[in-house]
Automatic annotation (TrEMBL), chain B:
<keyword id="KW-0813">Transport</keyword>
<dbReference type="GO" id="GO:0015031">
    <property type="term" value="P:protein transport"/>
</dbReference>
<dbReference type="GO" id="GO:0005789">
    <property type="term" value="C:endoplasmic reticulum membrane"/>
</dbReference>
<keyword id="KW-0472">Membrane</keyword>
<keyword id="KW-0675">Receptor</keyword>
<comment type="similarity">
    <text>Belongs to the ERD2 family.</text>
</comment>
<keyword id="KW-0968">Cytoplasmic vesicle</keyword>
<keyword id="KW-0256">Endoplasmic reticulum</keyword>
<protein>
    <recommendedName>
        <fullName>ER lumen protein-retaining receptor</fullName>
    </recommendedName>
</protein>
<dbReference type="GO" id="GO:0046923">
    <property type="term" value="F:ER retention sequence binding"/>
</dbReference>
<keyword id="KW-0931">ER-Golgi transport</keyword>
<feature type="transmembrane region" description="Helical">
    <location>
        <begin position="151"/>
        <end position="172"/>
    </location>
</feature>
<feature type="transmembrane region" description="Helical">
    <location>
        <begin position="94"/>
        <end position="113"/>
    </location>
</feature>
<dbReference type="InterPro" id="IPR000133">
    <property type="entry name" value="ER_ret_rcpt"/>
</dbReference>
<feature type="transmembrane region" description="Helical">
    <location>
        <begin position="65"/>
        <end position="82"/>
    </location>
</feature>
<dbReference type="GO" id="GO:0016192">
    <property type="term" value="P:vesicle-mediated transport"/>
</dbReference>
<feature type="transmembrane region" description="Helical">
    <location>
        <begin position="119"/>
        <end position="139"/>
    </location>
</feature>
Length: 10, 212
């Protein structure tokens, strides 16, 4: 599962 | 959002507020590494540039603004208002030994070779080692004020909780970010000996003093 580059964490 | 991430963010916020209040109330930044605080301000600056480009939630935006404001306020208090109490002789960690490898790593290992993504990756790698000047300073002075140990405890706890957040998100959302997880593990491991001292000494009412 490749992480997307939309980072929703602080 | 899950309970680990929410308590992690609140623990992080608590750490930032504890430090700011400690310096403001005691009007002193004795025992605090200004270098670590500059690195944290850099971490937030490079990670939260997306404040202007993408809106995720009100919570996300508000917390980012608070973190950035507190980080710069802390740096200002250390190097500006209470500079006289800054213990530069013990805050001698060579941060270039952190910045150069982190920049190289961010350029080599990232999710996408794009400016915003490399900056985000740089901030993730930098955050994992940003506390080293502070831990190094405590090892040099051989002790830390109790309030400073509480600051470090909540700061270390926040990324430990994030590790559980990532387990939760992997299991329930199929979300997995190897870069964040590996850096988060390194960051948490760096706190292990501090956690041991904090639990065996500070929580028993003793002062945190390293064997000189």
């Amino acid at each position: 599962i490749i992480a997307r580059t939309q980072h929703d964490e602080l | 959002m899950n309970i680990f991430r929410l308590t992690g963010d609140l623990s992080h916020l608590a750490a930032i507020i504890i430090l700011l209040l400690k310096i403001w109330k005691t009007r002193s930044c004795a025992g605090i590494s200004g270098k670590s605080q500059i690195l944290f301000a850099l971490v937030f600056t490079t990670r939260y540039l997306d404040l202007f480009s993408s809106f995720i939630s009100l919570y996300n935006t508000v917390m980012k603004v608070i973190y950035i404001m507190c980080a710069y306020a802390t740096v200002y208090l250390i190097y500006g208002k209470f500079k006289a109490t800054y213990d530069g002789n013990h805050d001698t960690f060579r941060v270039e030994f952190l910045l150069i490898p982190v920049v190289l790593l961010a350029v080599l290992i990232n999710h996408a070779f794009a400016p915003m993504e490399i900056l985000w990756t740089f901030s993730i790698y930098l955050e994992s080692v940003a506390i080293l000047p502070q831990l190094f300073m405590i090892s040099k002075t051989g002790e830390a004020e109790t309030i400073t140990t509480h600051y470090l405890f909540f700061l270390g706890l926040y990324r430990t909780l994030y590790l559980f957040n990532w387990i939760w998100r992997f299991y329930f959302e199929g979300f997995f970010d190897l870069i964040a997880v590996v850096a988060g593990l390194v960051q948490t491991i760096l706190y292990c000996d501090f956690f041991y001292l904090y639990i065996t000494k500070v929580l028993k009412g003793k002062k945190l003093s390293l064997p000189a």
